[in-house]
Task: inverse folding
């Protein structure tokens, strides 16, 4: 276990050296409720976030979502990296969610080497402005529902640590790419 923790901390040190833009738990910007933004500004911030996320992925091999407060921007926008594509979500809002929930060990670029096992709804309906400026509303389940809920929480000033199940915070020494949604803790 010690070797795995060391490896994880070494990767984190490289991130700290090479990507100074990232903000970490303890930074007040991560605790603000973000403001609505425009298509133009949302896409500009999205572009900055994309550079950071791609650099991060190069170092660690993971990282599938990133929200504006994580680079110090107090605006409602997040991006995702899914199926080799970056997508920008502007002013997202979750309008419906399932009663049924699942569990997943979430990592966060603003939390570093710790993971949090968080219980969240199975599916959500999310409304947002897409990259062309159209208002969209769609139902998502599975991993996307999980990812979008984590990112929207950032825009409301919450981190995965805040929503961790009791006893669910641990050193992230598992392979995040092999992590699966679970019905029970
Ligand atoms: Zn996060």
Result:
């Amino acid at each position: 276990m010690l070797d795995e923790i060391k490896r994880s901390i070494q990767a984190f040190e490289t991130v700290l050296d090479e990507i100074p833009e990232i903000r970490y738990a303890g930074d007040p910007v991560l605790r603000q409720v973000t403001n609505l933004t425009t298509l133009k500004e949302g896409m500009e911030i999205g572009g900055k976030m994309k550079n950071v996320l791609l650099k991060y992925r190069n170092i660690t091999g993971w990282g599938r979502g990133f929200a504006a407060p994580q680079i110090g921007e107090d605006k409602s926008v997040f991006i995702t990296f899914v199926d080799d594509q970056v997508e920008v979500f502007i002013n997202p809002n979750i309008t419906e969610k399932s009663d049924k929930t699942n569990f997943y060990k979430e990592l966060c670029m603003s939390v570093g080497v710790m993971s949090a096992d968080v219980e969240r709804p199975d599916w959500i309906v999310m409304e947002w402005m897409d990259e062309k400026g159209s208002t969209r509303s769609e139902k998502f389940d599975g991993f996307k529902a999980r990812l979008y809920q984590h990112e929207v929480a950032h825009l409301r000033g919450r981190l995965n640590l805040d929503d961790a199940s009791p006893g669910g915070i641990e050193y992230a020494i598992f392979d995040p790419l092999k992590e699966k949604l679970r019905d029970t803790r």
Summary: The first helix runs from residue 2 to 18. Residues 2-178 form a domain with the Peptide Deformylase fold (CATH 3.90.45.10). Helices lie at 2-18, 39-60, 142-155.
